[in-house]
């Protein structure tokens, strides 16, 4: 049975940042249930125009590069059983048994499953995209069809701020990634008109000046559409404005999707018997040697995730006495 000081569960940027920082302070092992490291962050694109928009993607890429070469890791495995013992944990994975003094859960978040909102028609139409789909298109350079669009609608809070689904929290990241996408699209296609449908606007964090500039470049409606309808020429957005139902036409619609806890985060919370909150996230307090980090505890952007991981690594280093 292999023994380590710290077992990090989750190979996204939070887990990689913690594991990298602790390499010289103890025996650290990282487990990632997928076949590769990086998590959701590696699917995101740098959104810089003629200036950096402070999206954090470049910083995330550096964390992943450092982790690949500097962190002892096992991919394709995840904890399946846990026994608390004096001085730590005995953990059984898919293929082995491990003993760990401390455990870090950095199992992350995933985009809200948009198909749970059938009124938004996602997955059944060609002109309705999620923000994460647009991120991937930007990363791959596949934006040809957007060059033909002259009007776009961004719909915020998809999967957040929804008490009916017990998702009343703000995902925090949606406004920021949407505004950065707006800035990039306007830079590439200056003739496009972009409208922004939201309950409010969150522009805190890195790059506030650029985010405010992007916000000033769109027409904002403080209301969320209650239905979409697509035909061969575009998408009709049905929305209530000033107490009256109205409709507007666009070439395409982008759904800014919020974050919920990943299946891995929810499974680890149950396995380690940790309290959870809205969205399935782990309550962010240490529980007798178990620490949750990054978006396993709630939605946050790349920069905040890395900073939190760095702070946790300092705390764990002190506990290890090194």
UniProtKB/TrEMBL annotation:
Pfam families: Pyr_redox_2
First and last residue of the signal peptide: none
Keywords: Oxidoreductase
Database matches in Gene3D superfamilies: FAD/NAD(P)-binding domain
Database matches in InterPro entries: FAD/NAD-bd_sf, FAD/NAD-binding_dom, Metab_Enz_Cyan_OpOx_G3PDH
Gene Ontology MF term list: oxidoreductase activity
Transmembrane portions of the chain: none
Boundaries of every FAD/NAD(P)-binding domain copy: 5-120
Name of the featured protein: CoB--CoM heterodisulfide reductase iron-sulfur subunit A family protein
Species of origin: Candidatus Caldatribacterium saccharofermentans
């Amino acid at each position: 049975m292999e023994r380590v000081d710290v077992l990090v569960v989750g190979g996204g940027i939070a887990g990689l940042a913690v594991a990298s920082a602790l390499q010289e302070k103890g025996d650290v092992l990282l487990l990632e249930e997928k076949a590769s490291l990086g998590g959701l962050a590696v699917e995101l694109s740098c959104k810089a125009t003629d200036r950096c928009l402070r999206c954090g993607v470049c910083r995330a890429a550096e964390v992943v590069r450092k982790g690949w070469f500097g962190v002892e890791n096992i991919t394709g495995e995840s904890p399946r059983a846990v026994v608390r013992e004096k001085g730590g944990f005995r953990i059984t994975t898919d293929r082995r048994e491990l003993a760990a003094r401390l455990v870090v859960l950095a199992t992350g978040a995933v985009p809200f499953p948009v198909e749970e909102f059938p009124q938004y028609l996602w997955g059944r139409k060609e002109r309705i995209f999620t923000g994460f789909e647009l991120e991937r298109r930007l990363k791959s350079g596949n934006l040809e069809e957007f060059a033909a669009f002259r009007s776009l609608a961004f719909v915020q809070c998809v999967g957040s701020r929804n008490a009916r689904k017990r998702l009343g929290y703000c995902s925090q990241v949606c406004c920021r990634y949407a505004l950065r996408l707006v800035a990039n699209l306007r830079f590439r296609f200056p003739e496009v008109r972009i409208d922004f449908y939201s309950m409010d606007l969150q522009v805190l964090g890195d790059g506030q000046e650029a985010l405010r500039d992007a916000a000033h470049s769109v027409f904002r409606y403080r209301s969320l559409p209650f239905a979409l309808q697509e035909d061969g020429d575009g998408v009709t957005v049905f929305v209530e404005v000033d107490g009256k139902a109205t409709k507007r036409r666009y070439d395409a619609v982008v759904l800014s999707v919020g974050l919920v806890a990943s299946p891995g985060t929810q499974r680890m919370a149950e396995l380690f018997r940790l309290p959870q909150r809205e969205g399935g996230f782990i309550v962010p307090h240490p529980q007798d040697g178990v620490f949750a980090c990054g978006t396993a505890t709630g939605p946050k952007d790349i920069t905040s995730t890395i900073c939190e991981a760095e702070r946790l690594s300092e705390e764990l280093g002190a506990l290890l006495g090194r």
